[in-house]
Design brief:
There is one protein chain. This protein folds into 2 domains: 136 residues, P-loop containing nucleotide triphosphate hydrolases (Rossmann fold, 3-Layer(aba) Sandwich); 148 residues, Bira Bifunctional Protein, Domain 2 (BirA Bifunctional Protein, domain 2, 2-Layer Sandwich), CATH 3.30.930.10. Helices cover 34% and strands 20% of the residues. It has 12 helices and 13 strands. The strands form 3 sheets. Strands 8, 9, 10, 11, 12 and 13 form a 6-stranded mixed sheet that branches. It has a 5-stranded parallel sheet with strand order 2-3-4-1-5. Strands 6-7 form a two-stranded antiparallel sheet. The longest helix is centred in the C-terminal third of the chain and has 19 residues. The chain is elongated. The relative contact order is 0.08.
Length: 356
Amino acid sequence: MAKPPAPRQLAFALPHAESFSPDDFLAGPSNADALHLIERWPDWPGRSVVLVGPEGAGKSHLAAIWADAAGARFLSARALGGAHLPATLATGALVVEDLSAEGFDERPLFHLLNLAREHDAFVLLTARTPPAGWKVQIADLASRLRALPVVALASADDALLRAVLPPRVACRGVATDLGTAERLTMADAFSRYVGADLLATADDAPALAASAGAELRPGESWEDLFFRLLLERIEPRIGRDRPTFLTHWPAAQAALARRDPADPRVAERFELWVCGMELANAFVELTDAGEQRARFLADRARRAALYGDAGWEMDEAFLAALAHGMPPAAGIALGFDRLAMIAAGAPRIGDVTWLP
């Protein structure tokens, strides 16, 4: 019998128009100093300046804005060695992109800085780390680099994220204000919307039913009742006027998540709700192989009690990988189709799925 083909990941081509215009630059506290530098040109602290920041912070975008205003040419740091340096300064302004501690030829950079000084040209250099800390062999170049004014950009922060997001989104008749978010523990959600003490009644279905004023159905387990109350009384009331992070789930409802060190009754798991629907599910990974084995054994015993002993196999390969060593990790599963629904205001998920 032919072996079925191995599953493969589908890569979606999602092209977007790249723009380096001033109108498309997202300003925020993380890049305020660098933006001010570009906007105040030619009133700079020196004719040569370095923009420093991590990848994706906006250095290239700001360099493009300045180049357009100053008539500057662009030169990659890797191309310094083969460039005709006087020609690069022909317009009186130059951007040198992506300088790094090991990725440039010292001699042409030294000559370039000297030429720029002689011709009163402006040079904007971009780098991920300040050049003053680089190990440079040419002593005079090291001195030049230490003397260059440095303006730093930081990684994108919450304020910059809010600049990307619209102030409000609406989907299926529910409008959510994205300006503030609610963080609600599962215990607090049960207290507010169910009137029950969730953690005090853990694993005791009659006690949870009595606390919630709910009738316990025949054969209904604590887990069944927990999800019924969650679905009927909590989920319809969260993530509507503002986003809700529903956090700190009962440990029994987070099979692969780490328990909260501050309260082992709950796990480090959350869901994000926007426009009245679950948008994401996340947790901190359990990396203790012994605890994970104990959870699997308890789950296997529970399944056997419910459905009979079906020979539930233990995932020994997974447990061996945990025992070998897994670094601290966390992950989030984002419902991209639901995100597309919110972005498009689509009433049905079928309106945004790529396959019928």
